[in-house]
Amino acid sequence: MKPNKNELCIQLIRKEITILVEQFQFFQIDKNWWIRKKGWKSDVIYFAQKNGILINLCVWIPPENDPNSNLDHEEIDMINLGTYVGLKSQEHTFSLWRSSGSICRKVVQDLGKGMKWFDQFSTPQLCLEYIKKKTWNRSSPGAVYRQKYLSSLPSEVVQTGIITKMKHKYPNEFSRALFDLDYEGQLPKTEGDEENDI
Fold first, then answer.
1. What's the longest Cα–Cα distance across the chain?
2. Residue 18 three-state SS
3. For helices 5-22 and 100-114, what crossing angle results, to 10°?
4. Which residue among 116, 138, 180, 189 has the highest number of C-beta atoms inside a 10 angstrom radius?
5. How many domains does the chain have?
6. Residue 194 falls inside a structural domain
7. Domain-embedded: residue 38
8. Structural domain of residue 95, as residue ranges?
9. CA 81, CA 57: separation in Å to the nearest integer?
10. CB under 8 Å to 173, separation ≥6 — which residues?
11. Model-level pTM greater than 0.85?
12. Is 198 part of any domain?
């Protein structure tokens, strides 16, 4: 079956996102995911197609290795690209009056602006400062873990944010794919992957 205009547009956007984010040391780990691993954290760009094109920017750290938890990451923060660049909607929307090329250029242009958002999380020290300013409930188990984890990293990592192989026990294969510098390949499939599969 021949792809429709929106599907062709999405394929073009994925290709152009990959070209852009490779300049920032991100690589495509799945059709809708780009990641920049530092070992101690990962910066993530996630793409979804709903009524339009939804892109989220995330900063994640490995989760606590708790056998009773199903977490594959702990989030330092996440922002929607549309919100970040001041769109009226969280999504870049398709239009009968706009060409695929113009939609693609707008998405890529906005993502280029959004890449600056990651700068405030470039070191564990900056992450800790951000958490202290932004966390509403500092005594929640997640907030306590994030502060403990970031504070426990070696001092050269805390100050510089250098890429470092970590001796971390990951609770599942998806988590290992997100953080382990030695993990190669695509993200393991999980439930719900088909929902955004284009």
1. 56
2. helix
3. 30
4. 180
5. 1
6. no
7. yes
8. 5-186
9. 7
10. 188
11. yes
12. no
